[in-house]
Amino acid sequence: MTNKPFSVSCPLPFGENDTIQLAHGGGGRLMQQLIEHLFLPAFDSAGVRESHDGALLSPKSERLAFTTDSYVIHPLFFPGGDIGKLAVYGTVNDLVMCGARPRYLSAGFILEEGLPIKTLQSVVASMQAAALACGVEIVTGDTKVVDRGKGDGIFINTAGIGEIESPQDIGPSQVRPGDHIILSGDIGRHGIAVMAIREGLEFDTTIESDLAPLCEPVLSLLEAGVEIHCLRDLTRGGLASAVNEIAEAAGICITLDEAAIPVEEQVRGACEILGFDPAYVANEGRFIAFIPEKEVGRALDILHAFPLGKAACLIGVAREKETSEAAVTMKTKIGVERIVDMISGEQLPRIC
Amino acid sequence: MTNKPFSVSCPLPFGENDTIQLAHGGGGRLMQQLIEHLFLPAFDSAGVRESHDGALLSPKSERLAFTTDSYVIHPLFFPGGDIGKLAVYGTVNDLVMCGARPRYLSAGFILEEGLPIKTLQSVVASMQAAALACGVEIVTGDTKVVDRGKGDGIFINTAGIGEIESPQDIGPSQVRPGDHIILSGDIGRHGIAVMAIREGLEFDTTIESDLAPLCEPVLSLLEAGVEIHCLRDLTRGGLASAVNEIAEAAGICITLDEAAIPVEEQVRGACEILGFDPAYVANEGRFIAFIPEKEVGRALDILHAFPLGKAACLIGVAREKETSEAAVTMKTKIGVERIVDMISGEQLPRIC
After folding, report:
1. Which DSSP symbol is given to B347?
2. Strand, helix or coil for residue A94
3. What are the tens digits of pLDDT across the range B17-27?
4. A162 vs B: CB within 8 A
5. I need a surface site. Which of A5, A260, B185, B240 has the fewest CB within 10 A?
């Protein structure tokens, strides 16, 4: 991608009220038209232009991270973002959590017959802007169309490749007892923003999703040489599920400090009304890092320099696991300790 | 993946009649269970096991191919394959068409609430067997669940990374006037097999899809140093769309010889009854190669050594484009020349 700004507004062969037909996914002339006039102007990379079965890459690093996510969020547009932005930042963030610099994305669209082409244009423009904002190229893609009633407007899968520049091994197996856990900002905004629009809830001001790319703050920590044992973004299942997964994979215990975890006033209020625990609500622009105690001050200083990390704080510690102890506990504001279990399902389905 | 044989039959916490719930995609305990007891035993690679946001790769080549495809085929099971096998071979074949050795796949599942878990198990076992058969590892994945009536059982996206070992540049831009076009086998079987089962058509014997991985024959051509200008597998839109796309991208004309194109008797009969032209019917294990005339004999000798390539033959030539000439023409069996245009849509939707 030459990273030029939006060009999806170039002359299109599509009318104002045109919709997606089954034939748009059929491999014939109509699909060519969709690729040429809608996808190509947005995802203008050499790989996409060559009209080939795949993109050719020459990554600069010998160590790569590879990840994938499908996005089925309902509704497609929500305060603070849309499915297109989510499909780019979500996968970019997974790469960043591997300590990698995101470089290349694939984009697979599953469109429902009858989808307004205007809707697809907005989503694609949003993906283009998001890719530009975090320096990744959408290099290869695919479109399928399913019959009306067999999909839900747009589903997007993105897979991503990132280059690992830092020699550090980052992952649950690197977590050690004594590690301190820092959180990059307030939690619960994405899930509540989606829920509010879905259920028609009204608040004094609109709660916006925290959806954001995490490249800059995390890569800055790595470039500064901060020792990082594990990174995890807090998506489905929220903070509580993320710490439970890591505690289990690393075979350690974690104690969180409830008073230290930032939750915006309106989000807390919405959670109370809806009966949700903010620790389980999804985020799309927040992460936790497990780091040695000696690195806490420096890591927070670095994070505080970014708008995205200005509320970063220490929220807990990892401890040696003793038999039959709960994996994750939380010191509550009234001073007692409660178990933070992994939930069975999810409080809100289809929020990512 | 340690490439051990099927292990999806290990003790499962799922009952005979269990179905997928929204909670299986929620990031909580039920999703963990699905990953641990269904996906992990099948896709047992270090990347998947680490319970991390992505897989870490150290490819051996500096030049990589990267591609993606979503699979929405209906029905999920058809003679000669199923959506799982298709999702592996389809993406593997796209990498092979870039001249790459397929190495790593991602797998993103979009499941519909109510899907029998048994169905998912079969599909996943089939993916495992397919990956094993062509030496690729499924290293990272994702599962989303959509509400009943918002999907169609299972959609799968796979993205793939392959290593390019040959120094040859392969792609439409490399095609030259005078190039000869070889086809690897008979055409039309995949589309007709799917159509027959979908519409309940009966033939003397079951028409089976040609679904197959193309790695061995194509990599053998490359390893033997056969000069190859362009490769293309004949999926959606069939042979006719593939040659049209390449002719357009390369700015050349193509003449095909109808009598040379192998079509199985039963497939030809079904096409006649249904009013289809076999040249437009989808395949999932067939490819064309554009090669210099001097390489034709050697290339066919190599292909004939593989069961998959035993019917390989020369089917046409590329020529200099003259103004206003049709991009693709076919010399018919009765000796006249007809235009082979790209179709507008597709004769059969959702066949891949």
Report:
1. S
2. helix
3. 899 999 999 88
4. yes
5. A5
Q: Give kind and range of the element (H or E) at residue B161.
A: strand B154-164
Q: Going by C-beta distance under 8 Å and a sequence separation of 6 or more, which residues neighbour residue B199?
A: none
pLDDT at B51: 63
Per-residue model confidence (pLDDT) at position B175: 97
A103 pLDDT more than 90: yes
Contact state of A50 with B249 under an 8 Å Cβ cutoff: yes
Give the B window 88-147 contacts with A, CB below 8 Å. Answer: 93-95, 97-98, 100, 104, 106-110, 139-142, 144-147
Per DSSP bridges, beta strands A154-164 and A287-291 are: unpaired
Tokens 């989510």 locate to A86
According to the model, what pLDDT value does residue A199 have?
85
CA dihedral A131, A132, A137, A141 (to 10 degrees): 50
Token reading at A71 = 């996005």
Work out the end-to-end distance of chain A between its first and last CA atoms, rounded to an integer number of angstroms.
26
Best mutation target, A21, A53, A152, to test chain B (most B CBs within 10 A) = A53
Whether chain B has a CB inside 8 Å of the CB on A21: the answer is yes
Q: Which residues are paired to B230 by β-bridges? A: B290
- Cis, peptide link before residue B278, omega less than 30° from 0: no
What residues contact A41, with CB distance under 8 A and at least 6 apart? A7, A8, A10
Residue A14 in this model has a pLDDT that exceeds 90? no
CATH class of the region B172-339: alpha beta
Q: Chain B within 8 Å of A289 (Cβ-Cβ)?
A: no
Q: Do B108 and A157 touch (CB under 8 A)?
A: yes
For B166-197, write each residue's pLDDT tens digit: 999 999 999 999 999 999 999 999 999 999 99
Query: How far apart, in whole angstroms, are the C-alpha atoms of residue B347 and residue B58?
Result: 42
Per DSSP, the residues of B223-250 read: HTT---SEEEE--TTHHHHHHHHHHHHH
pLDDT in tens, A45-75: 666 666 677 899 999 999 999 999 999 999 9
Q: Who among B47, B66, B238 is closest to A57 (CB)?
A: B66
pLDDT value for A51:
63
Q: What pTM value is reported for the model?
A: 0.94
B69 pLDDT higher than 90: yes
For residue A116, give both structure tokens.
């307004």
Looking at the DSSP bridge assignments, the partners of residue A19 are A116
CA atoms within 13 A on the CB side of A139: 25
Tell me if the bond preceding B75 is cis, omega within 30° of 0: yes
Is any Cβ of chain B less than 8 angstroms from the Cβ of A66? yes
The residue with tokens 């484009």 is: B321
Tens digit of pLDDT for each residue in A176-227? 999 999 999 999 999 999 999 988 888 888 899 999 999 999 999 999 999 9
SS3 sequence of B307-341: HHHCCCEEEEEEEECCCCCCCEEEECCCCCEEECC
Whether residue B25 lies within 8 A of chain A, CB to CB, comes out as: yes
Is the Cβ–Cβ distance between B189 and B207 less than 8 Å?
Answer: yes
Q: Is there a contact between A51 and B342 (Cβ–Cβ < 8 Å)?
A: no
- Asked if residue A346 has pLDDT above 80, the reply is no
For testing contact with chain B, the best of A24, A144, A229, A288 (most B CBs within 10 A): A144
Domain topology for B22-164:
60s Ribosomal Protein L30; Chain: A; (3.30.1330)
What does residue B336 show for φ and ψ, rounded to 5 degrees?
Answer: -90, 165
Summarised one tens digit per residue, pLDDT across range B286-345 is 999 999 999 999 999 999 999 999 999 999 999 999 888 889 999 998 999 999 998 877
- The DSSP H or E segment spanning A157 is strand A154-164
